[in-house]
Amino acid sequence: MKKIVFVTTNENKVKELRELAGTKINVEHLNYDYPELQLDETEAVARESANWVRERGVVKEPFFLEDSGLFVRALNGFPGPFSAFVAEKIGNEGILKLLAGKEGEERRATFKTVVAFCESPSPETAPLLFVGTAEGKIAEKPRGEGGFGYDPIFEFEEGAGTSRTFAEMSRAEKNAVSHRGRAFGKLLDYLVDVEPSSRTKNRT
Ligand code: ITT
Question: How many CA atoms lie within 13 A of 85 on its CB side?
Fold first, then answer.
């Protein structure tokens, strides 16, 4: 089975990815803490983080990492690229306080994941980016026991008037519709379908 290395400090991401990869790809976890770059765009954070890891020769094999963020409309896209910092400092309760009094469409939010994949250690090959998003709303209160991070406050609209938070879904249900599921799904398709010689373009 083809093997790729996932560089992350977040065990929950690894669990989600391993379930998505199934028997197609062997995802090996490297628990390595690269610096959290404070850039404006998730794409830039993922790309530059991958370059940082590659330039230091941390991994010798094909690897990927990913940057994820929660973008809340009423907060002009905050916390966005600062999601990790904000989660640590004010957490879900802090986000809910910032949204006090906001209703309906104002609570709209997007989750975004950008996967950056480095197939070779060569500095001439730019990391390939794969983007996935999920649209939803920030719940009035945290709900659910599953997932991690912002999952209890992110309500995904499933149609027919139902909306569960990601924390109310099983891992497989979240993976089927989530930002990470979509981004990693694109990487998986790419790895499984495309011949190495024709791998050049970003899939965003
Ligand atoms: P690495 O950078 O080491 O991969 P991290 O947890 O710092 O791990 P991110 O910067 O991508 O990862 O995540 C930003 C924040 O968003 C962090 O607090 C996560 O817990 C949270 N987060 C990321 N993906 C999430 C998801 O699918 N559901 C809920 N919260 C998520």
Answer: 10
